[in-house]
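Thread: Putative ring-cleaving dioxygenase MhqO, structure

OP (GT): Posting the sequence first so everyone is looking at the same thing. Length is 329 residues per the record. Can we get the structure tokens written out before standup tomorrow? I want them in the notebook alongside the other entries.
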Amino acid sequence: MAEPTPTPGIHHVTCIAGDPQQNLDFWVETLGLRLAKRSINQDDPSTYHFFFTDAEGTPGTSMTFFPWENLSRGKVGTGQVSRTAFRVPEGSLDYWEDRFDEYGVDYDDRVERFGETVLPFSDPDGLPVELVEVEVPDDDPTVPWTEFVPEDVAIRGFHSVTLWLADPQPTEDLLETMGFERVGTEEAQGDTPGDERTRFAATGSVGKYVDVLPTIESGRQGLGTVHHVAFQTPTDEDQQAMRKAVQSKGLRPTAQINRHWFRSVYFREFGGVLFELATSDPGYTADEPLDDLGGRLVLPGEFEGRREQIEAGLTDVTVPRAESAEADD
């Protein structure tokens, strides 16, 4: 079988939140990301689906959430994405620590990892997140969103995800099949269990790293955990080839599912983490102009015909705006 086109890296990461307003306030105002899409969980239309991105919804920048308000707190453990890391420009971590102090964000001491400086913190639901200082190239594909934070410190898409796995070897082999290259191993630091962290790099510049750590720490899905991680397969042809490659490893990927802003294939990898393959198109401007992204509740496909019923079941939320924040000062 022909080798699939290597994935450029992470497409999006989808997580579980609690209170939707709290989630909006933190990811838009505190972290300065753009709400590029305000929609619903297409498998559970009784809950929102929020998409937080850079200014243009570039692939590799989307942190998305299902706010299930009545769910209990989860626990990160084996078979999960244990941390999601974002890129920030070199020299910006002082700004972020000051901002976290101002907004009451829980954060830990910086650590050095593979020659980069990492600032670990948690969102209001306890989701483990990190900021990693990188040199952002002039031709970087991401476009910073600057409504709440200055351009020179703004988040510039994903850096990496860390997988906690009981037996890393089969997953490491799968990552190599997907086009990731093993680039290094070092002793694990901080609150991560296991002796060694192994890093794999994809071919792109955004969301290019996956780190793998061995652990037998038990976990459970709930608030403050990652639901799934999606990897870029830019075209339908790329996705179909990757699907076949995954299938050849003995895994059971779904058929392609239309998610309105991208087309998806899902499968659980060997360690239990839910992986998704996602196309680049049609993108978030398929149903809203770029300037108006996130401005309204978008109900894709057949859900539009149920708008009144769906809206009645959703909690009212207000998207943070910089002018509103200034008026409150």
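GT: Both are above now. Quick notes for whoever picks this up: The first strand starts at residue 10 and ends at 17. Residues 236-248 form the longest helix (13 residues).
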